TrEMBL record:
Pfam families associated with the record: Transposase_1 (PF01359)
The organism's place on the tree of life at top rank: Eukaryota
Organism from which the protein derives: Araneus ventricosus (Orbweaver spider)
Gene Ontology MF terms in the entry: nucleic acid binding
InterPro entries given in the database record: RNaseH_sf, Transposase-MT_Hybrid, Transposase_1
Identification of the protein by name: Mariner Mos1 transposase
């Protein structure tokens, strides 16, 4: 159940967002970058060649090079804007995405924006994020200032709100 404080906080975040949209319109929406942690399951196909021994020959070409499929898992962080994916960063399994890891990802995001969305950094990127500790840590704020990105915050630590 939401308390009055939760409701007020949500209302403040929504009004801030609407105010920025009213001022800058579609340009504001096109400058937003957001992201989320993800768990990825994928199949890694490795081709193995089977060699005949002696005078035995394979009659079916499919038997000569069967595919071996290995199921893999990875943790990661993906970041995107209105045009699509900017960065997907895979991490070793069990890596905790703390402020240090998040700051490294933000620096990689800056490079990805420079390569994929020329001019976006100079127009003022707005990072849409929740209030998770790694997002609000002092070091994270320093890195955001260093790479010249602003923020639009949500209040995901409040009950019932889905994180972006």
């Amino acid at each position: 159940m939401l308390t009055e404080i939760h409701k007020t906080s949500r209302m403040d975040a929504a009004l801030e967002f609407l105010s920025r949209y009213h001022t800058d319109g579609e340009d504001f929406l096109n400058r937003i970058v957001t992201g989320d942690e993800t768990w990825v399951a994928y199949v890694n196909a490795e081709t193995k060649q089977v060699y005949g021994m002696g005078s035995y020959r394979f009659s079916n070409p499919a038997e000569e090079s069967p595919s071996h499929f290995a199921s893999e898992e990875a943790d990661g962080y993906r970041l995107w804007d209105a045009q699509g994916i900017l960065l997907i960063e895979f991490m070793t399994r069990g890596t905790t995405i703390n402020s240090e890891v998040y700051c490294r990802t933000l620096k990689k995001l800056k490079r990805a924006i420079q390569n994929k969305r020329r001019g976006l950094l100079s127009s003022g990127v707005m990072l849409l994020r929740d209030n998770a500790r790694r997002h609000t840590a002092v070091r994270t704020g320093e890195v955001l200032t260093q790479i010249q990105m602003g923020c639009v915050s949500t209040s995901s630590l409040q009950p019932g709100l889905v994180s972006f």
